[in-house]
Design brief:
339 residues, eight-stranded parallel β-sheet, 18% strand, Alpha-Beta Plaits, 35% helix, 10 helices, 2 domains, four-stranded antiparallel β-sheet, homotetramer, elongated, TIM Barrel, alpha/beta
Amino acid sequence: MLVVMSYRATPEEVEAVVAAIEAKGYTARPIPGGERVAIGILHNKGAVEASHFLGFPGVKDVIPVTRPYKLVSREFQSEDTVIQVGDTPVGSGHLTLIAGPCAVESEEQCITIARGVKAAGAHLFRGGAFKPRTSPYSFQGLGEEGLRILARVREDTGMPVVTESLDTDNFDLVEEYADVIQIGARNMQNFSLLRRAGRSHKPVIVKRGLAATIDEWLMAAEYIMEGGNTQVILCERGVRTFAHHSRNTLDLSAVAAVCKESHLPVIVDPSHAAGRRDQVIPLSRAAVAVGSHGLMVEVHHKPEEALSDGAQSLYPEQFEVLCREIRAIFDVFQLADSV
Amino acid sequence: MLVVMSYRATPEEVEAVVAAIEAKGYTARPIPGGERVAIGILHNKGAVEASHFLGFPGVKDVIPVTRPYKLVSREFQSEDTVIQVGDTPVGSGHLTLIAGPCAVESEEQCITIARGVKAAGAHLFRGGAFKPRTSPYSFQGLGEEGLRILARVREDTGMPVVTESLDTDNFDLVEEYADVIQIGARNMQNFSLLRRAGRSHKPVIVKRGLAATIDEWLMAAEYIMEGGNTQVILCERGVRTFAHHSRNTLDLSAVAAVCKESHLPVIVDPSHAAGRRDQVIPLSRAAVAVGSHGLMVEVHHKPEEALSDGAQSLYPEQFEVLCREIRAIFDVFQLADSV
Amino acid sequence: MLVVMSYRATPEEVEAVVAAIEAKGYTARPIPGGERVAIGILHNKGAVEASHFLGFPGVKDVIPVTRPYKLVSREFQSEDTVIQVGDTPVGSGHLTLIAGPCAVESEEQCITIARGVKAAGAHLFRGGAFKPRTSPYSFQGLGEEGLRILARVREDTGMPVVTESLDTDNFDLVEEYADVIQIGARNMQNFSLLRRAGRSHKPVIVKRGLAATIDEWLMAAEYIMEGGNTQVILCERGVRTFAHHSRNTLDLSAVAAVCKESHLPVIVDPSHAAGRRDQVIPLSRAAVAVGSHGLMVEVHHKPEEALSDGAQSLYPEQFEVLCREIRAIFDVFQLADSV
Amino acid sequence: MLVVMSYRATPEEVEAVVAAIEAKGYTARPIPGGERVAIGILHNKGAVEASHFLGFPGVKDVIPVTRPYKLVSREFQSEDTVIQVGDTPVGSGHLTLIAGPCAVESEEQCITIARGVKAAGAHLFRGGAFKPRTSPYSFQGLGEEGLRILARVREDTGMPVVTESLDTDNFDLVEEYADVIQIGARNMQNFSLLRRAGRSHKPVIVKRGLAATIDEWLMAAEYIMEGGNTQVILCERGVRTFAHHSRNTLDLSAVAAVCKESHLPVIVDPSHAAGRRDQVIPLSRAAVAVGSHGLMVEVHHKPEEALSDGAQSLYPEQFEVLCREIRAIFDVFQLADSV
């Protein structure tokens, strides 16, 4: 971290900042410049409160230099993490497809969709039993009955299942049934939930918050890893911007940036990013082309009757097209990688 | 497009809108509803200026769809809600000041600050015992010991205390000690927590999420009211934008908009919006001038030693200046209201 | 809310939407128009899920108001526009590569880079003679001398040249030399410049503004077409968001959305979106995969000596990799299209 | 500026960066840290291309330390600039009110509004003769006839007039008639127009761009000052965010930040920020309370017939209320300042 002093800062003000840095157990290194002084902070361990020194007299700005995360970082582990979910590897060199309806509605619905997406090439089945809904009056999911349906889907199709845990109260229950536990975008900074996930032995998908920087997203993963669970999958699902031609703005540069910073697998959810069916296939192609390790896609055999998010769910036959196209792109990309 | 008339609109006002629509070459189709008239606009060619009819007498809004909330709405309850916290009313016609440190650090720290802010004019004391932190390595609060300190502050000063609940696990504990329970910005869509707050008998402050629309923010309050707790206070604390001259962008138009839509009290947290001390007093003045029912401000007697958010905490003497200035502005504004 | 049916919607599809509206307890009011049917939704209580009906067969959109543009719209011209630049077609079914340095610095620099990018597969050469710079103290371009250098590049390599016009004052001059005239992101709503471009006989690239909605972007193109110039190419180059892991956030859903709304070609500039070299190749792959009709990429043989934007310029050998990879993806995508 | 090296950077890579810095005529100062090296750049004059060094091998990040502007900065001139427009001072210690219709529509309209706003307390009259419109099909202003009407308003009321120049082509004409020339938000980075304004002898209002950082906004002012015109007034008018309860999000922290960074006067346009009449008075109060040196407000005697922006225009009697309220707040604030 760098504390930049005002050009009018007195030597006493510089001294006071140096003293405060050292009182916190860090090393202060003043850097006299042409017009002003900056003070570098070297710290042995732990994070420096980024804004702490902003309030000191004579301080103009405080600039973070190093990243706040550790365990998720490539500086901690340079080789890619690959997570095994049943027979399916998630991460470097693999393209993992997770598909299914937004919400578990019935066994018949789930089995129908699951067989369809498996035939098309999906590896994991997704479906929400506990649904985070903006309105208290919307369908909130089937709860434990939904989890039991997911278990029957797994039995029927052999596909591992992905489902969301909304809070620490239902985490145990979700953990009992799920093969992969999802933490939703709105819970990305629900630190109690992250801590609980850190004590789980199941892989966890952490979706990026609607307005999360990649530092904050990686810090959410850091909470889980710090708790002892190293099986973390990141999922980009669009951020909120002024644009309204899609529900959120899918940020594919985040995939490239995170792959550079972190060893964890990164997948993309084009369905929630788009919020509308007609953009899901093009965005899926783009996600694979940018280097995503997988996709999580909403598919429904009767989207017009879906209890939630029908407008963004693909028809099964569209999902087949999607699989074909991204597989071909992935092959190209893999080839390119080895050039 | 739908032009929604005020429920008090006269037949003449409806006629005038219809006439204006047709004067522009469109077809107007009035749709009489239960409570009000809406007017559909059919247009042959060219664009309708979306906001054009917003300015007509009797027109309430020009919209694609009505609002998703009910209980929090002025259509459900037209008069302002005023919430009583001990001797302190929060809401219409009152200006409530909540002040204290970001985190409870020690009894001495809290008592010192509490006496100072009370003398300056604060009504409620704030301090975090459980802290939501971006990093798992940062100070996470004193927990129950922090709550006990808050109880002693209340005993010593007579001030009711405001503190945050992070999750359903610690809600009972927080509820036992706190006079007002805060739900933080990162938890605004933690629906389990909102539901638990809906079963509480204590007033709840709901901070606006970093990227929340006012519809989503009001829906968070709706969750609580739907659960039976009508004592909800909204708190604007800045949203995340591209701007970086302040930590977040304080959105004061949200205060004006929410006061129009909802009967609930709305306060402003200038400290988290600014993220830097030098903007807190100007933004506090602006918040009161726009019509906020109160402020929540961070104050620390030794901000340079604070365990969190020191850079944005006011010195006690600055808080005195703040109180003086906003009180004067509030008096003007009240006067204006009665003109 | 208004559910707008596709102009090809069958009476059965209209009926299905009406039935679905009523099944939800709302009243449906079909409004037959000149070209299509729209269905107004009257609802007694509760909220209509805005996007719910978007997924129905025959439904084109669910909207408050129709689009403001005309000439650029697919409703005006359903088949794709293909623009001929010398021997190079731009638009549907073609993948056009525009490459070159940010700024024209010298004849030697331009010829060297131009020969390199041509060999790698570029069709058009780009280079700025007049540069829009945030600072008045930065290098502003070589002006007319830069244009003369571009002419010599064209002579030497046979490549048509793309360069930016900053204002109506220099438009004549730029028009004299350039094969394609670029209007930069900061000028997207410089309406005088757009009008002048509308009177040009040269193709015009309109870059999307940093905070432009696609409606505004298409309206900028509408200004040019309204003036009589039908040769407009749209260029997505990232929008400004809170994210700072890339200079701007590349919005690839905009490409999908614009291709649906408009018949004009859409290309992508990954260099300005990323602002850093290491994201340019991944974002280029993604852009082609999403369906972009081309790319505009910055390449410099000595980026560390470039007078502007060196950090985002590819080395010539990286551009070769890029060409190989995107060509392969484009082939896949074309194949998929014909499935 | 600080170049942060990767922790794996070799001594040779550090050396290469140092050499490149010095080859550009700057001084490089390596700062060895615990885990990595950072290199400070000290520069005598001119701006360092912020991203230039990002592309070097071994470089992890490049962090700007000092501000890019000079003449507009308080480091260049510490005392506030006060600009004289006729009898009206704009800047420190004064509260200047600019009011009038969005567009000049007729002499009768302008004289009527001008007399009304003058009586209420406005100092300057505003009205657009050349209008920047998103659509080529919208009313574009009366042009020179509009300027002549403004001149007659000035003659009739004695009020100086403010009007916008859209481009270098019409600048001479606007300059001939106007007392203050406005550069609109969409033209904030129209550098040709800024340069022309720099050669003017009339005061210039520079509106903040929809997605402009305050650095970019101040750089726009720097262009004008660098050209020799020191009479620059900054105008905050809201930025574009995801929020849609107001047309733009008024960013009042920008006023506080700019007043600290720059000696130039800063005013606020609440009308374009809000886009709806009912927020204009509350936001005006807030703007004055935060420390704005003035307001620019749209007023129309028949807003429902206005040719543009009627929905956000105040009725004259509302403007009277506004004047009364903000004057009272300003008095409080001035008092507070002297405490």
